[in-house]
Amino acid sequence: MSPDMDNELIVLSAAVGAACRQHQLTIATAESCTGGWAAQVITHTAGSSAWFDRGFITYSNAAKIDMLGVQQQTLDVYGAVSPETAMEMAKGATENSNAMISMAITGVAGPGGGSPDKPVGTVSFAWCIKGQTAEGDQRHFSGDREAIRRQAVKHALQGLLARIKS
After folding, report:
1. How many domains does the chain contain in total?
2. N or C: which end of the chain has fewer CB within 10 A?
3. Does 1 have pLDDT greater than 60?
């Protein structure tokens, strides 16, 4: 088991895969602060090529705009760490892939970079089913950088699983 994977994430990956197979869905991820960790968890499960299309790592605002079609105005008004930006990331992931469902993560993992409005541990999420409006969420996690990122991956995958099963 790699240091980035633990039993909880392995079980979650398998559950996402089983749900995707059952509903014949493929996934795309759009990640910023997690740097591809969610895609790594999904692809940890053997056979994931059947339900995982691609991952976008859009760490910079320019990448969010270029790869996912996030609007500059959204970034200017709400910032990179916002449900609004995450929703545009998730929508862009479905529009720029063959996936039927996507998830997005953008946040402040620390140890620096926080602000009074968005302290370290603030993470925004979104999930989008192709052709539908994205749903956004924002959470605040505690711990060091790795703990925040791990909690973000877990929350994003749990949200994805819930939407696949509904």
Report:
1. 1
2. C
3. no
